[in-house]
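Let's practice the habit of predicting before peeking. Look at the sequence and jot down your guess about where helices and strands might fall. Then scroll down.
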Amino acid sequence: VILNQQSRDKFEKTVKPGGLLIYDPYGINHKPERKDIRILEVKAMDATIEFGNAKSYNMILLGALIKVDPVVSVENVLRGLKKVLPERHHHLLPANEKAVNIGMSLVEE
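Done guessing? Here is the structure:
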């Protein structure tokens, strides 16, 4: 997952052939160009602004990633958040779940 031009310049070449590169065009001036990898543009910053919660950016990107490559389930993400967040922050769990679902909805199969 690359989020800015510097990361694209540094890491695009390190993705193995057949691999996946997810990027948010918000921070990218020159789009990835490789033909031997799967490239997925996810407008996560636009979705974050629309959602109205700047802290949801990473969860939106996580949702896009697990839609394409389900390395973890949404349920396990939420279970993990509940475990690591102090109880006083558990009221944020529904917003995090919504952000993950927004990210998943940004990906068209």
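How did you do? Residues 52 and 77 are 21 Å apart (CA to CA).
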